[in-house]
Specification:
The chain is α+β, with helices and mostly antiparallel strands. It has one domain. The chain has one helix and three strands; from the N terminus they run E-E-E-H. The N and C termini lie far apart (about 45 Å).
Length: about 60
C-alpha cells in the first residue's frame, strides 16, 4: 500500500498532508503564501508565455 497525499488550498496557505499506510502517523506541512506576490508571479509567467507564442507564431523564435 502506498502513501496517500492530500493537498488543500486556503486563501493564505497551502497544506500538504501525507498519510502513511504502515502507521497511524500523518505528516503535515503548511506553506504560507503571499497571495498578491503569487498572483503577480503567475501573471508575469503568463505574459512571458504569451510573448513567446506571439513570436513563435510569426517565425521569429
Amino acid at each position: 500500500m502506498a502513501f496517500r497525499d492530500e493537498i488543500s488550498v486556503h486563501p493564505s496557505a497551502i497544506s500538504f498532508t501525507r498519510f502513511s499506510p504502515h502507521t497511524d502517523f500523518k505528516i503535515k506541512q503548511q506553506i504560507i503564501i503571499n497571495t498578491n506576490k503569487y498572483i503577480k508571479t503567475i501573471k508575469n509567467h503568463l505574459t512571458q508565455l504569451e510573448t513567446k507564442l506571439f513570436y513563435k507564431k510569426r517565425g521569429v523564435l
